[in-house]
Amino acid sequence: MTVKTAARTLDLFEAFARTQEPLTLSELASALNMPVSSCFALVRTLESRGYVYMVAARKSLYPTKRLLDVAHRIAENDPILERVAPFLERLRDATGETIAFSNRRGDHIVYLDVFESSNSVRYHAQVGDAKFLHSSSVGKAFLGAMADDDLRKLVSRMKLTRLTSATLTSRKALLDDIARSRKRGWYCNVKESVEDLGGVAVTVSMGGERYGISIAGPVYRMQANLEAHAKKLLKTQQAIEAGH
């Protein structure tokens, strides 16, 4: 269930992130596809809390840094991300590829943190991005961590959306792929979600919860280094679960 006011508040900040410039009330209402009167009420609430301000020269609006400050304070004290960040930074540096840390939300995985590669050609991802379970390496890693009965029940009801010509849309093919991946200890995606993207992933268990770690990059680099990256990933998995 979506709470409309909460969704519109998030949509407002995302509208400013897209435009990267001040917006008048009417421009903002149009971007949010909502009546000007409703947009005005939302803006006044955020303005009273110090999250947006009026740019007098244009009679337009723009977010203050309050949201950034609040986000920084939250992020700096996240017990899980604080624990894994050093491991994931080292993994990024060792592989030269983008590292994503995620968890499962229903039939999707959602990125909780991203450590981008410094290569000019790289996989670009953002915190909050959602990916299908069946077509991403880390999604398959979450599937592989399930008990057999639970896995078969979930796969039997999942919609296996085709994203590329390589996407596994057969339930048998997906289950076979997961079975093979379980034996070797890691999961991969080669062109299954994006034509020129490859990835390798595992899950880690912390505090009774399961999280995903994936390495992703352009196929021409990933295919040549898939097993080497998988070995580094497994070492990172072991180090995180061992707590050192």
From TrEMBL:
GO biological process: one example: negative regulation of DNA-templated transcription
Domain of life: Bacteria
Gene3D superfamilies with a match to the protein in the record: 3.30.450.40, Winged helix-like DNA-binding domain superfamily/Winged helix DNA-binding domain
Single Gene Ontology MF annotation: DNA binding
Xref: InterPro entries: GAF-like_dom_sf, HTH_MetabolicPath_Reg, Tscrpt_reg_IclR_C, Tscrpt_reg_IclR_N, WH-like_DNA-bd_sf, WH_DNA-bd_sf
Coiled coil: none
Keyword Signal: no
Record-annotated HTH iclR-type domain positions: 3-63
Pfam families registered for this protein in UniProt: HTH_IclR, IclR_C
Protein keywords: DNA-binding, Transcription, Transcription regulation
Domain IclR-ED: 66-244
PANTHER family xrefs: HELIX-TURN-HELIX TRANSCRIPTIONAL REGULATOR, ICLR FAMILY (PTHR30136), HTH-TYPE TRANSCRIPTIONAL REGULATOR RV1719 (PTHR30136:SF35)
Record protein name field: IclR family transcriptional regulator
Source organism phylogeny: Bacteria, Pseudomonadati, Pseudomonadota, Betaproteobacteria, Burkholderiales
